[in-house]
Amino acid sequence: MNSVPDSAPASGAEAIIDLERQYVLQNYSRYPLVVHRGKGCHVYDVGGVRYLDFIAGIGVNALGHAHPRIVKVVREQAALLIHSSNLYYHEYQGPLARKLAEVSGLARSFFTNSGTEAVEGALKMIRAHGNQAGAGKHEIISLENSFHGRTLGALSTTGQPKYRHDFEPLLPGVRFVPANDIGALEAAFSQHTAGMLLELIQGEGGILPISAAYAQKARELADRYNALLVFDEIQCGVGRPGTYFAYQRLQPVVLPDVMVAAKPLACGLPLGVIVANEKAAAAIGPGMHGSTFGGSALACRVALEFFDILEELLPAIREIGGYFHSRLNDLAGRHALVKEVRGFGLMLGVDLTIPGKQIVLDAMADGLLINCTHDTVLRFLPPYIVTERDVDTAVKVLGKIFARQKGAAA
Ligand SMILES: Cc1ncc(COP(=O)(O)O)c(C=O)c1O
User: Fold this and answer.
1) pLDDT tens, 264-314?
2) 233 Cα nearest atom in ligand 1
3) What's residue 408's pLDDT?
4) How far does residue 115's CA lie from ligand 1's centre (Å)?
5) Over the stretch 148-191, which tens digit does the pLDDT of each residue have?
6) What's the 134 CA to ligand 1 centre distance in angstroms?
7) Whose CA is nearest to atom 13 of ligand 1?
8) Ligand 1 atom having least distance to the Cα of 58
9) Which of 83, 260, 312, 356 is the most exposed place for a label (fewest CB within 10 A)?
10) In the predicted model, what is the mean pLDDT of the chain?
C-alpha cells in the first residue's frame, strides 16, 4: 500500500491548500489531502497516491467512486436535462417517490438537497401538525448526544452543546432526553408534544445504537399523544444497515410517521428526502413548503439507478458488515486501547481509550481514510462494495498503528 507523510501534502497540493486558506471560509479543519479522482473503493490524490476510502465522503459514496452504471446515467441525463425547478414535472421524481414508498412502508416524499434541509422540512411538518391539532402543541423531543444538522432548526434539535452554543438563542420548545432511558422519555411526552426526532444509530454522537425497546416506546408515546415520530436515517439508513432503513432491523419493526434520508441517496449528487405517512404528509398543504433545487431530474434519476443496484447489494452489506465487525472485535481482543466496537452493517465505530485524531492521521499516512467522531471514536462508513480483502487491508493498517501506540505507551 502506498503511503504519504502525515503532515506534508502530496506534490502540487500546496498551492491548492494555500488558495483555499486565502479565499475559503475557515470553518473546516481539513486533512492535508487533495483528492483528485476515485475508482471503486479507492481515491487518488493530486500526486497520484492511492488511499483505501473507508469514510466514503462521510457515508455518501455508497457505490464507491466512478461506478460504471452511475457514470453512465449521469452522462446521459446531464445531456438531456439537469434541472427544471419544481414549477414543472419531470420524469424521475414520481418513480423515485414510488420506489421510496415501496421500500420504506411510508407514503409520500418531498425532495431536498441535503440532510439538514430534510430535517428542517420534517420540523415544519411537526410544527404544522401540532398547530393543526390544537393550541400549545408545539414541543419537540430530541435526544441528548444527537446530531440533526447545521441549519438553525436542525441545530435546535441537535443534542450536543458544542454545535449549539455559538448560535443561541435557538428554536424554543425543544426537550432533550437521554438515549435509551425509557423513564425519561415517558416523563418528557405530554399533550404539548408535537413530535420527536430519533437517530437509530447516533452517528456524530459516537456510533451509539438505540434499543428496539426504546424505539417501540417512542412509537407508543407518539401515538398516545398524537405526536409525529421522525426517524433521522441520514447517516444510518439507505442500505448502510444492511436493510433499506435502520428501523427495518428492529424486532419488531417500528415504523415512524416520517423518515428523513440523504447522504447516499444519489451517490454523491446532492439529494435528501422526507418520506411521510399520509397523516404527517397532510400537515403540509399547497404553498407551505418548497425548494428551487430539490429533486432535480439528474439527482432523481441517479437515485433510481442506485436503488436498482442496492436491492441486490443488501445481503452482501450484511455479510461484509458482519465480517468487518468480527475483524474489529479481533483487534479489540488484542489491543487494550480499544474499549468497544459498536454499530451494525457498514456503520461501525471503535471507541478508544485515547483521542482518535492522531490515529486518523496515521491511517492516512498508511493509505487508509477513516475519521473520528466524538473525540475517541474511529468511524467507518465504507462504500457498500467493499470486499473482505479491503477489510483485511484496513484492519491490518489499524493493527499496526495500535501496536505502535502500545510501544509508545510502554
Ligand atoms: C444523523 C444526521 N442528520 C443530519 C445530518 C445533516 O446532513 P447534511 O450534512 O447533509 O446537512 C447529518 C450529517 O452528518 C447526520 O449524520
Assistant:
1) 999 999 999 999 999 999 999 999 999 999 999 999 999 999 999 999 999
2) 1
3) 65
4) 5
5) 999 999 999 999 999 999 999 999 999 999 999 999 999 999 99
6) 31
7) 149
8) 14
9) 312
10) 95
Span from the CA of 409 to the centroid of ligand 1 (angstroms): 36
234, 118 Cβ separation under 8 angstroms: yes
| pLDDT for residue 406 | 75
For residue 151, give the ligand 1 atom closest to its CA: 11
Predicted confidence at residue 4, as pLDDT, reads 44
Closest protein CA for atom 16 of ligand 1 = 235
- 350-371 pLDDT, tens per residue? 999 999 999 999 999 999 999 9
Tens-place pLDDT, residues 70-96:
999 999 999 999 999 999 999 999 999
Residues with CB under 6 A from ligand 1: 114-116, 119, 147-149, 199, 203-204, 232, 234-235, 262
CA of 228 from ligand 1 middle (Å) equals 20
Task: Answer yes or no: pTM beyond 0.85.
Answer: yes
